[in-house]
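Example 5.3 — DNA-binding response regulator
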Amino acid sequence: METMKEYRILAVDDDTSILKLLQHILELDGYLVTVCSRPEELDLSDFVGYDLILLDVMMSPVSGFELCSYIRPYVSCPILFLTARELEEDKVEGLYRGADDYIVKPFGAKELLARIRAHLRREERHQEEQYEAENCCFYPSRYQVVCFERLIDFSEREFKLLQLLARHPQQIFSAETLYELLYPESSDTQLRSISEYIYQIRQKFKQEGLKAIATVRGVGYRWQLEPEVSEV
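Solution (predicted structure tokens):
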């Protein structure tokens, strides 16, 4: 597969033989692959930074369905289930939990790679397209946001933080959760960088006469966009 980008894929399955097979197939096709056979040891930060995630359904003590429900609110990349269960209700359950596809075992290497390529292409198109949240239009490829007809430029990290809040407007994110979602586990960046990014984002909105990102005292931050009210 010719590509300008090295895609990162996470495969989670408690069967190590399946993981070895998946890793072999995917690495031959040029992907960067991380495998995990103990899903119960993973935390939220372990799922961040991947372009696609493969989950087995029948795992113990944590099933693929449970894992998908746990990570989907925080992970936007495609999630594909790999399973020997082919009943329609199982497929519906997988999609209900937030998966993007459901591949039944045994599957061929060509089918697996074709499904993965299709989802990665679709994801790239989505990232290039603009999307709206309330009175803002986000442009991911340029790290720009247009709010109330005002164009605001952000750094990559500022944009990703803002985008995360805007896509989950009813959710409150602690600084610790934002840190886990924005930085890989190996990062030596300090937690206080989150409050610094929040400050910079607010300043950029303030320059345009707007307020963004509400602080919920003792809890964290949430998306809130509104024009600043002038003091009389």
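Remark. The domain at 131-227 is CATH 1.10.10.10 (Arc Repressor Mutant, subunit A).
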